């Protein structure tokens, strides 16, 4: 049995200043219609990084080519050397195919940590806006907020059972707005824009984190700028793009 990551992963990790590890699947469970939880073991602390970081997993696509997909780390358990990912399954892709067929004991190539958006520690309130692909990052980041503090979630979902929740430290003020898509295109920002219009920006320094579909996140970013937030107070990352597969490195096309 192979116990080391593929050489391509080792070389890529060196270029990225990250770590390449072969991880074992510990458990997989369905959390909702759109989200499955995957627990992986091995070198967890090194791979998981800080709240907001993600990891790259290596899969074969439908043509047998090796591609990578990126998933935010939901939780780190250093004692058991495990970390948890949320994988969305509301589309067809190599990650979806893998997670639907994976079983405990399977091995997968992982590179981490990746990502450049940590929690803004100087903010007193935090706004998390996106879709189901952002849940893992949103929850892990929010659970790292120092109390007293404030976290607000605005998440667009396809079905009612995608209203995922998490537990937070006492003293953290938490509120959530779930926007059901109701047949709108995934690239239609109307639902989240309407939710944002009802949100009054709190006083004091705040920070917004926009993780989700390419077109929607760009519109939400513009809306927050129009509301008076500065560009420095908005962290924006497209996790996917409607109608297009992510590139082999796991990133969506960034061209307009």
Q: Keyphrases for this structure?
A:
about 20% helix, alpha/beta, Rossmann fold, about 260 residues, single chain, six-stranded antiparallel β-barrel, Elongation Factor Tu (Ef-tu), domain 3, 2 domains, 6 helices
What can you tell me about this protein's structure?
Strand 1 and strand 2 form a beta hairpin. Helix content is 20%, strand content 36%. It is of the alpha/beta class. The protein has a six-stranded antiparallel beta barrel with strand order 1-2-5-4-3-6. Strands 9-8-7-10-11 form a five-stranded parallel β-sheet, sandwiched between helices. It folds into two domains: 7-113, Translation factors (Elongation Factor Tu (Ef-tu), domain 3, Beta Barrel), CATH 2.40.30.10; 125-240, 3-Layer(aba) Sandwich (Rossmann fold). The model has no long low-confidence stretch (mean pLDDT 95). The protein contains six helices and eleven strands. The longest helix is centred in the C-terminal third of the chain and has 13 residues, at 214-226.
Task: Name the poorly predicted regions.
Answer: none
> How many DSSP E strands?
11
Order of helices and strands: HEEHEEEHEEHEEHEHE
Structural class by SSE content: alpha/beta
| Name of the CATH superfamily of the largest domain | Nucleotide-binding domain of ferredoxin-NADP reductase (FNR) module
How many helices? The count is 6
Q: Mean pLDDT score, rounded?
A: 95
Specify Rg, calculated over alpha carbons: 18 Å
Spatial strand arrangement across the major sheet? 1-2-5-4-3-6
CATH class membership of the largest domain: Alpha Beta
Question: Could you estimate the helical fraction of the residues in percent?
Answer: 10-25%
Content of β-strand:
35-45%
- Biggest sheet: strands, sense, closure? 6 strands, antiparallel, barrel
- CATH architecture descriptor text of the largest domain: 3-Layer(aba) Sandwich
Distance between the termini: 45 Å
Give the CATH topology of the largest domain.
Rossmann fold
Quick one: overall form? Answer: globular
């Amino acid at each position: 049995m192979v116990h080391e990551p593929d050489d391509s992963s080792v070389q890529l990790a060196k270029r990225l200043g990250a770590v390449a590890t072969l991880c074992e699947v510990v458990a997989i469970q369905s959390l909702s219609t759109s989200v499955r939880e995957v627990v992986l073991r091995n070198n967890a602390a090194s791979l998981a990084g800080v709240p907001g970081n993600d990891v790259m997993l290596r899969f074969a696509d439908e043509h047998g080519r090796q591609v990578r997909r990126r998933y935010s780390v939901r939780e780190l358990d250093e004692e058991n050397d495990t970390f948890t990912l949320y994988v969305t399954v509301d589309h067809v892709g190599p990650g979806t195919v893998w997670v639907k067929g994976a079983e405990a004991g399977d091995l997968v190539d992982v590179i981490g940590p990746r990502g450049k958006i940590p929690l803004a520690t100087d903010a007193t309130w935090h706004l998390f806006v996106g879709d189901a692909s952002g849940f893992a990052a949103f929850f892990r980041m929010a659970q790292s907020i120092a109390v007293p503090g404030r976290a607000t979630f605005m998440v667009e979902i396809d079905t009612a059972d995608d209203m995922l929740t998490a537990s937070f430290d006492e003293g953290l003020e938490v509120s959530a707005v779930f926007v059901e898509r109701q047949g709108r295109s995934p690239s239609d920002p109307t639902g989240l824009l309407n939710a944002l219009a009802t949100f009054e920006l709190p006083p004091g320094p705040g920070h917004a984190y926009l993780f989700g579909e390419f077109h929607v996140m760009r519109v939400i970013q513009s809306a927050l700028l129009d509301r008076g937030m500065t560009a420095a107070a908005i962290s924006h990352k497209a996790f996917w793009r409607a109608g297009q597969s992510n590139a082999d490195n796991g990133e969506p096309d960034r061209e307009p």
